[in-house]
Amino acid sequence: MAAKEVGPLAGSVHVALGVPRDFDSSDDLLIDRRYWVASYNQGWLVPNWVGWQLIASDLGMAARQDDFRADTTLPPGVRQVKATDYRGSGYDRGHMCPSADRTATVEANSATFLMTNMEPQLHALNGGPWQDLEAFERQLALAGKRVQIVAGGLFEGATATIGPGIAVPTASFKVIVVLDPDQLAAAVTVSTTVYAAVMPNAASVAGTKWTQYIVSVDEVERRSGYDLLREVADDVETIIEARVATPP
User: Fold this and answer.
1) Three-state DSSP class for 96?
2) How far from the centroid of its chain's Cα atoms is residue 194's Cα?
3) Stretch (H or E) spanning 238
4) Distances in Å between the alpha carbon of 242 and those of 123, 174, 220?
5) DSSP 28-92
6) How far is CA 78 from CA 7, 70, 141, 167, 248, in A?
7) Among this protein's residues, is 123 annotated catalytic?
8) I need a surface site. Which of 13, 83, 216, 245 has the fewest CB within 10 A?
């Protein structure tokens, strides 16, 4: 079995399959915003990753709040990205945990508009295959599944920035583990469905389908540097992370 999780996010339902880790923890400010958790990169001013659980009860009738705002609960000395810092950049304020995944209450929806949940995405991505994959994860939840999700950006090669130094990812990744409502990490088997995708942050994704970007979890780990699904039994983890899911 994998080692028992310890640390500030231990026990959070949003990282029930393990807190992603890499070899350099100095740029991993772990934050818990109740409706999602994240590793925030203080140098890049974007999350390294955001994790959340999605079930049917997270979905309701609350309207999209659109109250993009600085995360004022960051520790002293950590720059707070403002809602206006993306202005004129040509990039959307791209949600990692989507607004539409948190519609049970106004409070839950509003929490997704903290800037610590955003990364710069071209609209071709944010309003295209990335949005379609978000819709798919909600379909899974509405079908009665408990969905464990982690998403973030990839920063490969020279890193462009916008505004006060906000790093622009070259691609966005997402990993979705599909569980039954009562399943925990110990219940994950080699038959558990896992979707992983890497989508270029490029105009060329316009008009494409999210299923074109399915990869293995191993590929996400190789390119991000993060070890995912760390609470899953090692022998199971090895198999499900190497597999490329069949498009639904």
Assistant:
1) coil
2) 14
3) helix 234-242
4) 31, 15, 10
5) -EEEE-SS-EEEEETTTTEEEEEEEEE-GGG-SSPPP----B--TTSPTTS----GGGGTTSS-E
6) 20, 11, 35, 15, 41
7) no
8) 13
Q: What is the rounded distance in angstroms from the CA atom of residue 146 to the CA atom of residue 137?
A: 10
Q: pLDDT of the chain along its 248 residues, tens only?
A: 444 556 789 889 999 999 999 999 999 999 999 999 999 999 999 999 999 999 999 999 999 999 999 999 999 999 999 999 999 999 999 999 999 999 999 999 999 999 999 999 999 999 999 999 999 999 999 999 999 999 999 999 989 999 999 999 999 999 999 999 988 888 999 999 999 999 999 999 999 999 999 999 999 999 999 999 999 999 999 999 999 999 99
The residue among 100, 26, 10, 36 whose CA lies nearest residue 63 is 100
Q: At what angle do helices 217-224 and 234-242 cross, to 10 degrees?
A: 90
Residue type, 160: A
User: SS3 of 170, please?
Assistant: coil
Q: For the whole model, what pTM was predicted?
A: 0.96
Residue tagged 């990839």 (tokens)? 154
Catalytic residue, from 14, 33, 93, 95: name it: 95
